[in-house]
Design goal:
By secondary structure, this protein is α+β, with helices and mostly antiparallel strands. The chain contains eight helices and eleven strands.
């Protein structure tokens, strides 16, 4: 199969020569799929032997409770992987995966390839998988830090501060619309909108759609 540059550059294939990817992907039972925004890729309760590698677009990993209340517990954009823990463990999914935009995904079978009969680059693939899992654990730790804040205002400031530091700039875009941001922070959308409006009125931030600019006291009123 033709290898996209983004797939070849994925951390999953770090230190694996490009010329060796085609046979490796065949061994990994690589399957490319296209989904439209809002479409379900994987549903809670299902089992999967394949992790997903996002080639374009974005997906949200969503958890719903008994009453249908939804929280976004993870995001995956181009080059990111998802469902790797379930693919390796064989456990049924406790989350669903939804297309946040039109998305192209490469599904890859990993357990047999990385942990089965020894083959070329097996150890490197294992190392790359462990690195990806460590990265996901770090992302979860960051999310827990936002969620641990007591109020909607504090959760917003924690998240937006982290995004500004990540961008290296007080002005940045976030990959979430208002409802998605409320779901990600597990807060009521109306309460969140009110908190954003108050923060703007206080001169702490400016925003338009998903673009934000955090302000320091010396910038307020400029």
């Amino acid at each position: 199969m033709e290898i996209s540059p983004l797939a070849a550059a994925s951390p999953l294939f770090r230190k694996i020569p490009a010329e060796d990817l085609p046979p490796l992907l065949r061994r990994m039972d690589a399957r490319e799929r296209q989904y439209q925004k809002g479409e379900l890729l994987l549903h809670r309760g299902a089992r999967t032997e394949h992790l997903g590698l996002v080639l374009s677009g974005a997906v949200h990993i969503v958890r719903e409770d008994f009453w249908g209340n939804r929280a976004i517990v993870g995001l995956a954009g181009p080059g990111d992987v998802f469902a790797e823990t379930y693919a390796l463990s064989g456990e049924p999914l406790e989350v669903s995966v939804l297309a946040a935009a039109d998305v192209a995904v490469l599904f890859l079978e990993v357990e047999r390839t990385a942990f089965g009969k020894a083959g070329a680059f097996q150890e490197q693939l294992k190392e790359n998988l462990l690195s990806l899992l460590a990265g996901k654990n770090l992302q979860l730790t960051r999310k827990i830090r936002h969620m641990a804040q007591r109020t909607t205002r504090e959760k917003l400031l924690s998240y937006l501060s982290a995004q500004a530091l990540l961008a290296g700039s007080p002005a940045f875009d976030i990959p979430l619309d208002r409802q998605q941001l409320a779901d990600f922070l597990a807060v009521d959308r109306s309460a969140m909108s009110a908190a954003l409006g108050k923060l703007r009125d206080e001169g702490i931030l400016e925003f338009r759609k998903n673009h934000f600019r955090l302000l320091r006291p010396t910038e307020q009123g400029d």
